[in-house]
């Protein structure tokens, strides 16, 4: 009898060994209120397998996946009215945390916070308070973009109805600008079925609450799950038009024109004017307020200038024609010519520190030159370096072009010398939370202590499942290291954002070929608020 | 309710004509056109109305008052545009004497088209009265109370196509917002059906599947509540409560001749949805995707709501191997659908002419069309579906061939028959293909077409009650018998002298109808519509080689 029992125990034990199944379970809640969310579609993806398992969360927000094979899993959550998200998705869209499952492993502590969509609604009327029908209303998300400047990212649009009403929904929380009027993206509405009785008029575009320029627009901070009503506009059929006047300085060829291109989003009002051969005077009419880029080019000379046009003519603009020339560059690695055999194509970008105009070249082309570069002061940016290589210096003439900028004069052309080094520093470490647990999928960012306008010195990486990270190729120097649980991508390039966290960064000095280890405390998502 | 629609459009056209009484009699070059736009009562001026002067008559003939074929923006691009002032007044000066018409639109009113030739004279003073449009709105909820967002809502009306099929056409389409709300506005008064369901766009957050239903929640459009849109009406509460739909799969396998099996790798399958009440012609409601059969020839389409689908298969870039299988999904997966791939066949035919031989020049455009039928309905004009096959007749030998024929039932039609001729007889073996469908695949019969050069001719003039010729009215010849024979119908518009003619009339008994230009195209295929006007029609008997000239009267109010 005893023997028999032992045998069955052994058999059942063997069965368990042969087929140990794992499980994942957790709860889905609404971000902010933490109320459980039912009817959420939860999809489980096994790494390397495009098929998925699906379950629906119950009334208590709970979900279960049983009988799983060991492996790495990802979870996706999806319900109408909420942002579709992966578990552990932070900082960069689409990045997610894998859940490692051992044979027989049980992961039962998943808490998924779903971000509810928001809505904005209002009415668009004309100056006599009559509803404006079929007016496009669009929202732009105000995002950080590489290289660290905030910019507008078009999200989507809608049209006003016969009552002048619009409603934008499905909006992710965040900062937004709202714009109405202007030409629709597609002048003929082939995409939507048109209404034969609708008469569509076209108004000049304005930002909420009624300005053509982004500078004066109101930034709407949209909270998760909010329903913002009464965001009303008055649209003027045709705004006041103004003039930009000035003169071109330098040698003027016949037929020279100055062009004004609007830098405001979706503004289609551009203009141009002839340049008087004798006086250099130019006039550009019919412009609405806003930021413009003035440009002129003729033969080997060109001019470029960004100007702000306000509620009135802009006069006395001086547009110097500059000679252009060819800049040669050379790349050295550890004092020897850079071997192109490494297969890496290096990108060089020269950015005009005054106009923002930029030009570039790559080592794919030989000779390595930047052509038609106007005289001016430029910031030097080098990207796509091979692993284990960093940009040690860039010299132009005798100047430090990397930190002081490069003064380019076509008449006194020199060669831009880019010195690479194969002795970068390396930094590895682990990030822990307040309870000393490893923090996976948090953003570790290296911020230069000096030269904070040199974007190429910043590095960002996500920690792995065990909270570890490694920067393999860092330019030697002094840095601060931050570990954020949640932060908008690239916002660390904004000094205002960084200022909020300055004392939470860990200072570190990295010498050539140094290999350092560091332990960081995660800056929790709540720390900002 | 169709009558309401028609009478409204009559009213519109002839409200413009009521002021013709004061028009100057001379008809020199036009130098200016001016007028006043008011609401229907004639008292309330409409300011800010957009008035477009059309430069090209071709624009109008392609659009028509009730047509929505040409976008207003495009139409206005091809014209000169002005806007009415506070008093509703507009004026065009120095206009091209060839200017053809005016289009008047204002938000809240039915867009109207006027032909300038209706107002001969040097200065044209035109009073334009616009009928108010209507609006309806509602909320779409799912499973009781929850609002459904991004669900499509369509406003539909019945139309007849060139094949004589009655089917639903979308007047407008919108989608619900996140509160489940939808709103249709600026609707031309008339009779409509409302339909909701099916996600409007896969791009946004619409993950829920709902089976499309007609208002207030029926699958069959014949049981749907008809929505009467009246001028100025703005009604809310057209709410839908949709059932969140469990979705199903269609699974099947490729079948067919052994030679076809080796082609599995090259086969692509496509699934289209045919909603209730919609025509099987041309456009299906949605392309439900493509599938590639697996190595053993099996395939699967997922996430389908109940309804009629068509699975089509074709070998990559090859018209010779194809299949077309209708599949109805009920409340469950559909398994074991056999998609029998067939090598398409060629049907041979012979043409014989009874009487004068056909002139090559005039027969240049002659085509024979074989249209596949799906559940008795023609599946036309979609080459990808494997339907339409054309072939030019070969005049010298009198033989022709129609390629890419599938194992399906077909309908025969001869198109662009040269003037003076008609198809006297058409047979496939023993089958009279003029009056019956036939299955040409696999048979060795030949299509025998007999043309006769002794078609009848009818010509005539349409005049008003003052015996003045009326231009741009529609004359339609409708057969007395065999009213399902679309090929027996003839229609023509009168020219500037009020003249019309039909050159190739099949001998037989007909009724001749006259409608103003606002008559909806193909509405004469609607038996109810014809029945209503039948007493006003002129009976015409056509014999072989007969020629007759008629004079028809049309009253200024549009009723004959």
Structural description of this entry:
The complex is a heterodimer of chains A (529) and B (560). In chain A, 5% of the residues lie in helices and 48% in strands. In chain A, a hairpin with a 6-residue loop joins β5 and β6 (85-86). In chain A, strands 19, 20, 22, 23, 25, 26, 29, 31, 32 and 34 form a ten-stranded mixed β-sheet that branches. The termini of chain A are far apart. In chain A, 32% of the residues are buried. Chain A is mainly beta. The model of chain A is unreliable at 1-17 and 186-192 (pLDDT under 50). Chain A contains three helices and 41 strands. Helix content of chain B is 7%, strand content 46%. Chain B is built from five helices and 40 strands. The longest helix of chain B has 16 residues, at 2-17. Chain B is flat. Chains A and B meet through β12 of A and α3, β11 and β12 of B.
Counting DSSP E segments of at least 2 residues, the number of strands of chain B comes to 40
From the alpha carbons, calculate the radius of gyration of chain A and give it in angstroms: 29 Å
Biggest interface, chains and residue tallies: A-B, 27 and 34 residues
How many angstroms separate the termini of chain A? 67 Å
The assigned structural class of chain B equals: mainly beta
**What is the general shape of chain A?**
flat
């Amino acid at each position: 009898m005893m023997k028999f029992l032992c045998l069955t125990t052994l058999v059942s034990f063997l069965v368990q060994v042969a087929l140990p199944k794992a499980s994942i379970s957790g709860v889905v809640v609404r971000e902010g209120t933490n109320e459980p969310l039912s009817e959420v579609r939860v999809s489980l993806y096994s790494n390397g397998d495009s098929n998925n398992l699906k379950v629906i969360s119950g009334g208590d927000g709970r979900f279960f996946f049983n009988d799983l094979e060991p492996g790495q899993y990802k979870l996706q959550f999806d319900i109408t009215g909420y942002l579709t998200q992966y578990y552990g998705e932070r900082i960069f869209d689409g990045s997610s945390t894998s859940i490692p499952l051992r044979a027989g492993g049980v992961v039962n502590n998943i808490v998924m916070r779903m971000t509810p969509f928001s809505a904005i609604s209002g009415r668009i009327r004309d100056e006599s308070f009559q509803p404006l029908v079929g007016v496009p209303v669009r929202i732009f998300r105000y995002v950080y973009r590489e290289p660290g400047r905030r910019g507008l990212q078009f999200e989507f649009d809608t049209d006003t109805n016969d009552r002048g009403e619009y409603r934008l929904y499905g909006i992710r929380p965040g900062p937004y600008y709202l714009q109405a009027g202007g030409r629709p993206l597609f002048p003929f509405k082939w995409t939507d079925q048109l209404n034969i009785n609708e008469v569509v008029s076209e108004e000049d575009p304005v930002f909420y609450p009624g300005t053509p320029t982004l500078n004066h627009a109101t930034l709407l901070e949209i909270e998760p799950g909010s329903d913002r009503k009464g965001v009303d506009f008055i649209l003027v059929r045709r705004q006041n038009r103004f003039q930009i006047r000035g003169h071109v300085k330098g040698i003027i060829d016949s037929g020279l024109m100055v062009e004004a291109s609007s830098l405001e989003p979706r503004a289609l009002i551009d203009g141009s004017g002839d340049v008087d051969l004798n006086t250099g005077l130019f006039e550009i009419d019919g412009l609405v307020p806003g930021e413009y880029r003035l440009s002129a080019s003729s033969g080997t000379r060109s001019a470029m200038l960004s100007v702000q046009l306000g509620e009135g003519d802009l006069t006395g603009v001086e547009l110097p024609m500059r000679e252009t020339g060819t800049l040669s560059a050379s790349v050295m690695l550890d004092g020897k010519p850079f071997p192109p055999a490494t297969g890496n194509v290096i990108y060089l970008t020269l950015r005009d520190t005054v106009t923002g105009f930029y030009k570039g070249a790559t080592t794919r082309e030989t000779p390595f030159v930047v052509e038609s570069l106007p005289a001016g002061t430029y910031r030097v940016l080098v990207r796509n370096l091979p692993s284990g290589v960093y940009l040690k210096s860039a010299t132009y003439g005798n100047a430090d072009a990397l930190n002081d900028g490069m003064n380019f004069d076509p008449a006194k052309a020199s060669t831009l010398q880019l010195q690479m080094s194969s002795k970068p520093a390396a930094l590895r470490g682990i990030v822990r939370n307040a309870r000393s647990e490893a923090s996976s999928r948090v953003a570790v960012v290296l911020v230069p202590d000096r030269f904070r306008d040199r974007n190429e010195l910043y590095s960002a990486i996500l920690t792995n499942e065990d909270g570890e990270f490694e920067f393999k190729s860092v330019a030697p120097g002094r840095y601060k290291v931050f570990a954020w649980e949640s932060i908008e991508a690239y916002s660390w390039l904004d000094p205002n954002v960084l200022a909020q966290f300055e004392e939470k960064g860990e200072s570190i000095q990295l010498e050539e070929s140094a290999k350092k280890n560091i332990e960081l405390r995660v800056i929790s998502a709540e720390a900002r608020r | 309710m169709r009558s309401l629609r028609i009478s409204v459009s009559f009213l519109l056209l002839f409200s413009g004509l009521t002021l013709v009484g004061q028009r100057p009699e001379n008809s020199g070059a036009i130098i200016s056109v001016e007028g006043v736009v008011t609401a229907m009562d004639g008292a309330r001026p409409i300011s800010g109305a957009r008035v477009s002067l059309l430069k090209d008559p071709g624009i109008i003939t392609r659009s028509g008052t009730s047509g929505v074929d040409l976008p207003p923006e495009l139409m206005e691009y091809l014209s000169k545009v002005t806007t009415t002032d506070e008093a509703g007044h507009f004026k065009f000066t120095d206009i091209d004497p060839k200017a053809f018409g005016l289009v008047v639109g204002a938000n809240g009113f039915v867009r109207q088209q006027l032909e300038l030739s209706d107002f001969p004279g040097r200065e044209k003073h035109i009073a334009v009265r616009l009928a108010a449009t209507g609006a309806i709105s509602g909320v779409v909820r799912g499973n009781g109370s929850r609002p459904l967002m991004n669900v499509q809502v369509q406003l539909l009306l019945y139309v007849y196509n060139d094949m004589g099929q009655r089917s639903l056409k979308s007047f407008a389409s919108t989608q619900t917002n996140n509160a489940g709300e939808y709103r249709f506005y600026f609707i031309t008064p008339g009779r409509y059906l409302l339909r909701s369901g099916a996600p409007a766009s896969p791009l946004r957050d619409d993950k829920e599947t709902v089976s499309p239903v007609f208002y207030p929640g029926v699958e069959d459009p014949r049981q749907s509540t008809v929505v009467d849109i009246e001028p100025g009406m703005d009604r809310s509460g057209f709410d839908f409560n949709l059932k969140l739909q469990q979705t199903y799969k269609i699974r099947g396998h490729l079948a067919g001749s052994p030679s076809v099996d080796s082609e599995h790798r090259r086969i692509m399958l496509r699934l289209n949805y045919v909603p209730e009440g919609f025509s099987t012609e041309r456009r299906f409601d949605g392309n439900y995707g493509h599938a590639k059969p697996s190595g053993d020839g099996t395939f699967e389409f997922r996430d389908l709501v109940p309804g009629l689908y068509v699975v089509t298969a074709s070998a990559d870039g090859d018209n010779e191997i194809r299949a077309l299988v209708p599949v109805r999904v009920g409340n469950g997966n559909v398994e074991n659908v056999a998609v029998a791939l067939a090598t398409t066949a060629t049907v041979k035919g012979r043409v014989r002419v009874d009487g004068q031989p056909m002139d090559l020049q005039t027969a240049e455009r002659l085509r024979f069309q074989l249209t596949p039928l799906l559940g008795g309905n023609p599946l036309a004009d979609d080459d990808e579906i494997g339907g339409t096959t054309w072939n030019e007749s070969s005049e010298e030998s009198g033989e022709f061939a129609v390629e890419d024929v599938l194992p399906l039932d077909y309908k025969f039609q001869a198109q662009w028959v040269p003037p003076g001729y008609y198809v006297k007889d058409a047979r496939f073996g023993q089958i009279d293909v003029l009056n019956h469908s036939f299955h040409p695949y696999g048979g060795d019969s030949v299509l025998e077409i007999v043309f006769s050069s002794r078609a009848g001719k009818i010509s005539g003039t349409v005049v008003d009650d003052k015996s003045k010729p009326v231009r741009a009215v529609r004359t339609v010849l409708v057969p007395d018998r065999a009213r399902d024979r679309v090929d027996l119908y003839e229609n023509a518009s009168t020219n500037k002298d009020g003249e019309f003619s039909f050159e190739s009339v099949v001998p037989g008994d007909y009724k001749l109808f006259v409608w103003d230009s606002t008559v909806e195209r193909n509405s004469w295929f609607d038996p109810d519509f014809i029945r209503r006007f039948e007493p006003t029609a002129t009976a015409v008997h056509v014999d072989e080689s007969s020629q007759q000239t008629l004079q028809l009267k049309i009253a200024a109010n549009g009723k004959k």
